[in-house]
Amino acid sequence: MADSVAASVAASMAERRSPAAAFAARFEAASAGGGLRLAEIPFLTQINLRVDPKSPAAERIGTAIGVPLPVEPGTAAGGGDLEVLWLGPDEWLVVGPDGAAPGLVERLTEAADGEHVSVVDVSAQRTTLVVAGDRARDVLAHGCALDLHPRVFGPGRVAQTMLARAGVVLVAGADGFRLLVRSSFAAYVAEWLLDASVEYVAGG
What we know:
It is a single chain. Residues 4-13 have low confidence and may be disordered. The protein starts with a helix and ends in a 7-residue tail after the last helix. Strands 1-7-10-9-8 form a five-stranded antiparallel beta sheet. α3 (56-65) packs antiparallel against α4 (101-112). The chain has a single domain, classed as Gyrase A, domain 2 (2-Layer Sandwich). The chain is built from six helices and ten strands; from the N terminus they run ααββαβββαββαβββα. It has helices spanning 2-14, 24-30, 56-65, 101-112, 136-141, 186-197, and strands spanning 37-41, 45-50, 76-79, 82-88, 91-96, 118-121, 126-132, 158-163, 166-173, 176-182. The chain is an alpha+beta fold and 204 residues long.
């Protein structure tokens, strides 16, 4: 019985399909010209954390995960294989590699040590889309009202915003942007990105 259950779980995991998996080939084709890169980073661990930033628990959590919680609005902090995104005065999103959720939830909960802290695994809620390259800002500007100039929204900046009427968490990095988008909107946003990219793609 145990063997059959294990086999069933293994098969289920093998069949796991990311929200934007159907767009992989089209993303690759759009990225062929070199000026733009579109991709999906599926199955990242995402833990929503709510805690008073001035509390001892917040300091313990930062120590436990090796990344102090950023307190400047709209910023990100990273360390090792984790990144912490500021979402609000007492809210962060802790992002890590696929499969890290159980251990990360345990570390965060232990560090809270009974204080008023909320730790929720929201990994299944969103996928991550990459928009990188010299034309990344041009593409996003078609549907995002934020000023994406590097002096305003450069590496390490984070915003909860709208892209083509879809809510996203936009993260700026050294090589472009990541869009954390709800799984139910992933196909819509992927299609929109491909359409907005046409004029910047070789042969488009």
